[in-house]
């Protein structure tokens, strides 16, 4: 039971990290201190997507699931709704490249907007 809860917690952490990589620039807009966390997170996310290496969170989740005595994912809420978001059946190398490009474009737009806003505020002073 404890291993399964640990695996579910790692899965939730994994999803939160993916969302942070994708949209963390919005937190930077709120508090600049998040920049020191977000830029390395983007770099790591792109590295994992483009290199084809598995994320260590995947390793830990699978290890905890094996320790819990399960090989696959049982039909619980977390497995049913969150696993397909993180591990879709259609995921392939070209799709991973597309996902990496989406991360870059979204973050470029967010950070571009932040730079634009900062420059216009500075010019108005």
From TrEMBL:
Transmembrane segments: 12-30, 97-116
Origin: domain of life: Bacteria
Pfam families: DUF2784
Keyword terms: Membrane, Transmembrane, Transmembrane helix
Name recorded for this polypeptide: DUF2784 domain-containing protein
Organism: Stutzerimonas chloritidismutans
Lineage: Bacteria, Pseudomonadati, Pseudomonadota, Gammaproteobacteria, Pseudomonadales
């Amino acid at each position: 039971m404890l291993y399964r809860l640990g695996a579910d917690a790692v899965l939730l952490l994994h999803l939160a990290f993916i969302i942070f990589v994708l949209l963390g620039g919005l937190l930077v807009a709120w508090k600049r201190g998040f920049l020191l966390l977000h830029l390395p997170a983007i770099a790591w996310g792109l590295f994992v997507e483009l290199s084809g290496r598995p994320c260590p969170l995947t390793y830990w989740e699978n290890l905890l699931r094996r320790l819990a005595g399960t090989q696959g994912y049982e039909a619980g809420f977390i497995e049913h709704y969150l696993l397909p978001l993180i591990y879709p059946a259609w995921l392939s190398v070209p799709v991973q490249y597309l996902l990496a490009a989406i991360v870059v474009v979204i973050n470029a737009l967010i950070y571009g907007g932040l730079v634009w806003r900062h420059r216009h505020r500075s010019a108005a002073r």
